[in-house]
Amino acid sequence: CTYGLSLISEWPLALLAMKKALKEDGTLVILDFYPFRGAMRIFNPFLNLWMRQFGVKLNTSVASELQKNFRFVDEIIPKSGYNFIVKAQN
């Protein structure tokens, strides 16, 4: 799932649907937007304003939501950010 989850208002339900569509030993990989970190975080108000124009909501709790339903979850957040990668295995 690439930059799509942040466009879905009921994204936890979308995660459950993705899990259901996976094979028993399947892997889900998500790449999506994330607030800036470190010194770059001063740009978050501008990032939020820009993303809202396209209906994007920055979400920081995808990994914790996946941990409720997947046996293995690994989240990678680049040093300064604007995106994240999370891998979840059934």
Spell out the key features of this protein.
about 90 residues; alpha+beta; globular; 3 strands; three-stranded antiparallel β-sheet
Written overview of the protein:
By secondary structure, the protein is an alpha+beta fold. 29% of the residues lie in helices and 21% in strands. The protein has 3 helices and 3 strands, in the order αβααββ. Strands 1-3-2 form a 3-stranded antiparallel sheet. Strand 2 and strand 3 (83-89) form a beta hairpin. The model has no long low-confidence stretch (mean pLDDT 93).
Query: For the report, how would you describe the main beta sheet?
Result: 3 strands, antiparallel
**Distance N to C terminus:** 16 Å
Strand content: 15-25%
Approximate shape: globular
Helix content bin: 25-40%
Average of pLDDT: 93
Give the tally of β-strands.
Answer: 3
Low-confidence stretches: none
String of helices and strands: HEHHEE
Structural class: alpha+beta
Layout of helices and strands:
Elements: H1 11-21, E1 27-33, H2 44-52, H3 62-67, E2 72-76, E3 83-89
Antiparallel strand pairs: 1-3, 2-3
Describe, in short, the structure shown.
By secondary structure, this protein is α+β, with helices and mostly antiparallel strands.
